[in-house]
Amino acid sequence: MVLSWVTFQYLFQEYWPHLVFLLSLVIGGTAAVHAAMTKQDVRAAIAWVGVIIMSPLLGPLLYLIAGINRVRHEHITDQQNRNLRDYFSNPDLPIATPEQLISPHFESLRVLGDRVSHFPLRSGNQISILRGGDETYPAMICAIDSAQKSVALQTYIFDDDSEGRKIVDALARAHERGVQVRVLIDAVGSRYSRPPVIRRLRRSGIPCALFMTNPLGMRMPYANLRSHRKILVIDGCTAFTGGMNIREGFVTAVAGKDTALDTHFRVDGPVVLQLMSVFAHDWSFTTREELPHLDWSCDIWGASGPRVPARCIRSGPDRYIVGTHNMLLGAFAVARRHIRIQSPYFLPDQVLLGALNTAARRGITVDVVIPGRNNLRLVNYAMTAQLDQIIRNGCRVWRARGNFNHSKLITIDGIWSYVGSSNLDPRSLRLNFELDMEIYSEDTAAEIESLIDDEIAQADAVTLESLAAIPFRKRLRNRVIWLASPYL
Questions:
Q1: How do residues 256-307 score in pLDDT, each as one tens digit?
Q2: d(CA 376, CA 40)
Q3: For the chain, what is the radius of gyration of the CA atoms?
Q4: Is the dihedral of CA 246, 438, 129, 141 positive or negative?
Q5: Which of 287, 305, 385, 417 has its CA 20 to 30 A from that of 77?
Q6: How far apart are the first and last CA of the chain?
Q7: SS3 167
Q8: Which residues are within 8 A (CB) of 401 and not within 5 positions of it... i.e. 6 or more apart?
Q9: Dihedral Cα 128, 131, 135, 141, nearest 10 deg
C-alpha cells in the first residue's frame, strides 16, 4: 500500500501535465459534443464550442453554469396541470371569429398564434393604454385597493423606492383586509434595488418569492435565465401588463425632466385568465404552491367600451422558446402596407432582419424607432453597428429625441398590435421568460401608431451617410461589441 501511494505520487509529479491534458480533453470534448448536439441556434452552438475549445477547463464550467437549458425539461407545462388549464379552457368563453380579425389576410396569423401560443384568440376584451408611470402606477394602486378576492403581481424590477413603497403599502392593505396576495419578482431584477423590496414585502406578511433562486442564493444552472414578465391581476377580472417595471424613474414628480417613458396596458375580458394562468404557472414552478382556479379567476367582466380579440403569447427557454420570434416572422410576412416598431433594445437576429428587409423590398413601409439616449450604452453601441443592414434595404430607422423610452410596441397595417415585455434582442427572444399580447383592433392600433408617429415626428433619421460619418474608432468599438450581442 505504501509502495502504491509512493508510486502514485511519483507518477503524478512526473506526468501531471499529461494527466491534466487528458482530463481537459475528456471534459472539453464532452461539453463540446453536448453543445453541438443540443443547441438549435447555430450561432449559440458555434460560440459555446469555441469557448470550450479555447479554454478546455474553464469553458466547460461556464457551459455547465450558463449554457445547459435545464428549464426546458423541468419547467412544468399547463398541458400537464389540469388546474392551470382551467384558467383558459372554459368552452363558454367567446372565441374570435374571422370577421373580428378585420381583414382576411390576418387569418393565417391567427392560425400561427393558435400553434405558437396554445391559448385561444378570445374576443370580448377591452384594452386601455396607460402612458408612463404617472398613469400606470396610480391605476395599479387603485385596482389593488379595490380588490375583494385576490391580487397576483409579477415583475422583473421592483425597486424599494418612493413608488415601490406605495405599491407595497397597497398590497399590505389588501393583505390586511383578507385578500389573497402573491408577489413574484425575478431574482436578478430584485437586485437593482438596495435593499431589495422583498424584505419590505416579507415584513408586511405578504406571500412573495424570487423567480429562479433558493434560500442559499441564485441557482447556478439558471444564472443566465430571467423572468422579464410584468403581470398584475385583480380578482381574476382586471389585469395590467406591458413593459413597465416598478421604479420611480418613470414618475415625473420624482424624476422631473429626466423621467423615463414607457407604455403599459389595462386589460378587462377573457384574456385576463390567460395572464392569470401564466402567473399561476410561474408561481407553481417557483414555490410548488398551486393557486386554485376558482379562487383566482372570474367569468364576468363589467368594463364598458369596444370589445376586441386578444391573446397572450408566452416565450422563454422552456417549451415556448422562440414564441415571440415566430409570431413576429408571421406578422412581418402578412404585412401589406406598414410595419411600425418601437423598441428600446433593437438587436434582432439575421432571420428577423431578413424578414424586415424582405417586407421593405416588397414595398411595405417599415419604420423602426429606437432611443436617441439609451440607458444601456453597450446595447446602444451594438444596435448602431447593425443598423446599416436594414437601412440599405429600404427600412427607415429613427433615433427619438428626448428622454429614454422603454416602450415595446409593434403594429401591422393599422390593425394588428403586439405589445408586452419582449425586446427585440437575443436575450428577450431566447433566454428570458417573456409575455406579450397580440391585439386585433383598429382603435388600439391607431392609438399605438399615434404614440410611435409622435416619436418619429421629433426624431432624427438614421442614414447610411450618418453611420459612415461616425469616427472609425467608434465604428470599430461598436462592431466589436456587436459581436458579443447574444450575451448582452
A1: 999 999 999 999 999 999 999 999 999 999 999 999 988 898 877 765 667 8
A2: 28
A3: 24
A4: negative
A5: 417
A6: 54
A7: helix
A8: 372, 458, 459, 460
A9: 70
At 154, is the secondary structure helix, strand, or coil? strand
Indicate the SS3 state at residue 186.
strand
pLDDT tens digit string along 173-203?
999 999 999 999 999 999 898 899 999 999 9
Distance of CA 184 to the CA centre of its chain: 15
Residue type, 302: G
The answer to whether the bond into 426 is cis (omega within 30° of 0) is no
**DSSP code for 158:** B
**How many angstroms separate the CA atoms of 179 and 438, rounded?**
31
Looking up cell 442614414 gives 463
Cα distance between residue 149 and residue 157, in whole Å: 25
**What CA–CA distance (Å, rounded) separates 275 from 420?**
11
Unique residue bearing C-alpha cell 501511494: 5
Query: Quick one: which of 3, 64, 75, 2 has its CA closest to 28?
Result: 64
Judged by DSSP in three states, 365 sits in strand
Asked if 309 contacts 125 with a C-beta cutoff of 8 angstroms, the reply is yes
**β-bridge partners, 162:** none
